[in-house]
Specification:
Shape: globular
Strand content: 5-15%
Helix content: 40-55%
Number of helices: 6
Radius of gyration: 17 Å
Length: 158
């Protein structure tokens, strides 16, 4: 999960996973979605799109093609994570506003104490989900501007 975007040859990695997997093995594979990556590009640090971070960007069709080319059969393909896309986007902006620029592994720097804006975003999102149709709003955002995409796939028996 969320590894393929960090490797220079994701197909080789997937083929090895398929090779060592048992027949009918299930795979849960996830990567950031291209729409979310492009959304963040304007304000994420440059290092976020360099090694060891995200050096591969997958659109929906490209991710599916990669999975099938590796020898797996796709059972389900979905998008998710609008909340986290906004969370990270706000994080990048608050870090920049504080005069901090991330270098190296981006995830190594994300730790408390969090900016008050991030707490307010989490509270707002929680309140939205409490509304009678909050789940519909979440589903619409997840489909329109996802942080990631996920494929559940199966290794063929033969």
């Amino acid at each position: 999960m969320d590894v393929l975007e960090h490797t220079p040859d994701p197909l080789a990695l997937l083929r090895e996973l398929v090779r060592v997997g048992a027949p009918n093995a299930k795979y849960v594979l996830s990567v950031p979605d291209k729409r979310g990556e492009e959304f963040q590009r304007a304000f994420a640090p440059k290092a976020y799109f360099e090694q060891p971070n995200h050096i591969q960007i997958f659109d929906t069709a490209g991710f599916a093609a990669l999975i099938t080319e590796s020898g797996l059969q796709i059972d389900h393909h979905t998008t998710h994570g609008f909340f986290w896309l906004m969370h990270f986007s706000l994080y990048w902006l608050t870090e920049r506003a504080a005069g901090r620029e991330l270098e190296g592994a981006a995830m190594d720097r994300i730790a408390p104490p969090y900016h008050p804006l991030l707490k307010q975003w989490a509270q707002l999102w929680h309140q939205l989900l409490q509304l009678p149709d909050g789940d519909l709003l979440k589903q619409a955002f997840d489909a329109a501007l996802p942080k990631g995409q996920c494929i559940i796939a199966t290794k063929p028996a033969g």
